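Morning, I've got a small favour to ask if you have a moment. I've dropped the whole record in just underneath, so have a look.
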Amino acid sequence: MGAMPATTSLDPAVAARLKRNPDGLVPAIAQQYDTGEVLMLGWMDAEALHRTLTTGRCTYWSRSRREYWVKGDTSGHVQHVKSVALDCDGDTVLVRVDQVGAACHTGDRTCFDADVLLTAPGQ
């Protein structure tokens, strides 16, 4: 519901597999490619996914600003794309990246560092 473009250059076969939410978005999980560390979750539409696939930099759709943003353009904390996978249901994207600096806007390495709800015994 906003200014997202109706057309995209994303491969139509890939676009057809995407199961988007009512806003036309799919969650995109960014994971550090070599350690498996889960860094953050962002949102992509077909055009953001196309840009991510073709530029080698993660592009997300900002739901609050209603615009595309490339991770690191402002902060310098770039995500260099190593691989992109669509999950079995087509409703989530996994982007394996080489993260430069912090992934979280708070300055933490990941968005999941600060609020651990449970740690299994022995961990």
The radius of gyration is 15 Å.
